[in-house]
Design a protein that fits this description.
With 218 residues, this protein is of the alpha+beta class. The chain has one domain. It contains three helices and eleven strands, in the order ααβββββββββββα. A five-stranded antiparallel β-sheet has the order 3-4-5-6-7, with helices on one face. A hairpin with an 8-residue loop joins strand 8 and strand 9.
Length: 218
């Protein structure tokens, strides 16, 4: 009687092989589900971030394109009476005058638009589109303008200009449009992202309305 009671207690204290296998199977299934959920969550965040960055890129392109089309051929005069165009275009930097409607609660008016890349220690950096108010003498006013529009992690900015040289000649593409009093007819902006970055920048070429008219009258 005593031996039978001892054997029964031993059976109740442990797990059978079947129970152990079932427990291990449930544990494996739970780990697989947790791992899948983490992967799904991480992928959802990546897609969400990519959509946001793509939307920001489209906004940047649209704003830049609109302002380029409405570029004004403004000229400043120095003390010697030498004219200098507000439009100054290098291969990696561009500034020009363009009208702006009200944005972010700030008033409308004439603005100096500056497109530039700020590389950080030789690596990719933010691409900015700065909007600074101009006064009646076409000089940037030292006060708060529209908030800069930024595109982060840009590897390279390349700008080219199409038009006729001021001293005459056939229209062609230039890497630089500085020291001239007239506008180019076309401006093309190419933005390159670091290797592996999924973002793309389709060719952005805009015709400057007043620049094209001046070119056609030559």
């Amino acid at each position: 009687m005593t031996q039978s009671h001892f054997t029964s207690s031993q059976a109740e204290d442990g797990f059978t092989l079947i129970e152990l296998l079932v427990s291990l199977s449930l544990l494996v299934i739970m780990l697989a589900l947790i791992n899948g959920s983490l992967r799904f969550g991480r992928r959802a965040w990546e897609v969400s971030d990519q959509v946001e960055r793509t939307d920001s890129l489209a906004t940047f392109r649209n704003l830049l394109g609109q302002r380029l089309v409405e570029t004004l051929p403004l000229v400043n005069w120095d003390d010697r009476g030498v004219p200098t165009s507000v439009f100054q275009g290098a291969s990696d930097r561009l500034s020009f005058a363009s009208p702006m409607s009200s944005r972010n609660g700030l008033p409308a008016g004439l603005f100096l638009v500056t497109l530039k890349l700020a590389p950080q220690a030789g690596v990719s950096g933010p691409l900015s589109l700065e909007l600074t108010p101009l006064n009646g003498d076409n000089v940037a006013i030292d006060r708060v303008g529209h908030a800069p529009v930024l595109i982060d992690n840009v590897a390279r900015l390349v700008i080219r200009y199409y038009g006729s040289p001021e001293r005459g000649g056939e229209p062609r593409w230039f890497d630089n449009w500085e020291g001239q009093t007239t506008l180019p007819g076309l401006v093309t902006v190419d933005v390159q992202f670091p290797s592996g970055d999924p973002r793309t920048w389709p060719p952005l070429t805009r015709e400057l309305k007043l620049g094209s008219r001046a070119q056609s009258r030559r």
